[in-house]
Design a protein that fits this description.
Helix content is 35%, strand content 21%. It has helices spanning 12-24, 40-52, 80-89, 100-103, 122-125, 129-144, 156-168, 198-203, 206-219, 225-237, and strands at 7-9, 29-34, 55-60, 92-96, 147-152, 173-178, 242-250, 263-273, 276-286. Strand 8 and strand 9 (276-286) form a beta hairpin. The longest helix has 16 residues, at 129-144. Bound molecules: pantoate. Residues 33-35, 63, 66, 133, 136-137, 155, 158 line the site of pantoate.
């Protein structure tokens, strides 16, 4: 039985040197930034990195900068040993697990500040969240050096923000977004799902059902983003469990709500279920053509 294992590196300078060595031997680096508590979604990123790059390198770092006051930084799940084992079995060769003090011996005075599209949706509800994500992602890519960086589409807005940060700061990474992995009942895998009690877990897949209802409406040709958002909301409102933060159908690049729906769009939803906040999203393609003929179905 082959049991693959990953080497754990704690110090930022050792991490930088290890990846430099991979490149000096002609290999490319597949970086998978995570906050640990690895689940099947993360492991699909690790497998993709291992399949397409010489070395899959996973970072495990619960980044305090991206948590607001009153959020779940303290109770965020941490299981480094299990993470190292799971990452190794999925094909990771290196795991970077620095402490907060190793990353920032004193609180950072220089951080990355992201404009639109970080201000809306998650950014509106979690002020400063994407600045924290952008800061750690920029630091991880700078430490790692030239790499392919893998992110899950489950955090769709994060992918859009990270692409902007990488492009605008000319960070040496190619960003690859990978599809959301779901439980059989449709619930998107998330490290926060462990917080759901049995009753909450039972209704949680309704978030995905709500997105599917919105997607059907878009794909039936509904051009009105408000009607689609209302359809998503009404699925969640059928029982009293969810406290909705937002439901929207947006342009997949700008994350703005378009005047009329045409071509590719993205459905976004976020809701609280008890003490746990869940987010999810889904792509949909309207049969209507975008002005200028950029929609699908154009001849
Ligand atoms: O998606 C996550 O787990 C985090 O936001 C990331 C990208 C690892 C940055 O801390």
């Amino acid at each position: 039985v082959s049991h693959l294992s990953a080497t754990v590196i704690r110090r930022p300078d050792e991490w930088a040197a290890a990846l430099e060595e991979v490149r000096s031997r002609g290999g490319d680096v597949g970086l998978v930034p995570t906050m640990g508590a690895l689940h099947g979604g993360h492991l699909s990123l690790v497998r993709r990195a291992a399949a397409t790059c010489a070395v899959a390198a996973v970072s495990v770092y619960v980044n305090p900068l991206q948590f607001g006051t009153g959020e779940d930084l303290e109770r965020y799940p941490r299981h480094l040993d299990a993470d190292v084992e799971a990452a190794g079995e999925a094909g990771a060769r290196l795991v970077f697990a620095p402490s907060v003090e190793e990353m920032w011996p004193s609180p950072p005075v220089a951080t990355v500040c992201v404009g639109a599209p970080a201000g809306r949706w998650e950014g509106a509800i979690r002020p400063g969240h994407f600045d924290g994500v952008a800061t750690i992602v920029a630091k991880l890519i700078n430490l790692s050096g030239r790499c392919v960086a893998f992110f899950g589409e489950k955090d769709y807005q994060q992918v859009v923000v990270v692409r902007s940060v990488v492009a605008d700061l000319s960070l040496p990474a190619a960003v690859v977004a990978c599809p959301t992995v779901r439980e059989v009942d449709g619930l998107a895998l998330s490290s926060r799902n462990v917080f759901l009690d049995a009753g909450e877990r039972a209704v949680a897949p309704r978030l995905y059902a709500a997105l599917l209802a919105g997607k059907r409406l878009v794909e039936d040709g509904c051009a009105d983003p408000t009607r689609v958002a209302d359809a998503v909301t009404s699925v969640l409102a059928t029982d009293g469990h969810f406290a909705l933060d937002y439901a929207a159908v947006v342009d997949p690049d700008t994350l703005e709500v378009p005047g009329t729906l045409a071509g590719e769009v993205r459905l976004l939803v976020a809701a609280r279920l008890g003490r746990t906040r869940l987010i999810d999203n889904l792509a949909a393609v309207s049969p209507r053509l975008r002005a200028g003929g950029a929609g699908t179905g154009s001849p």
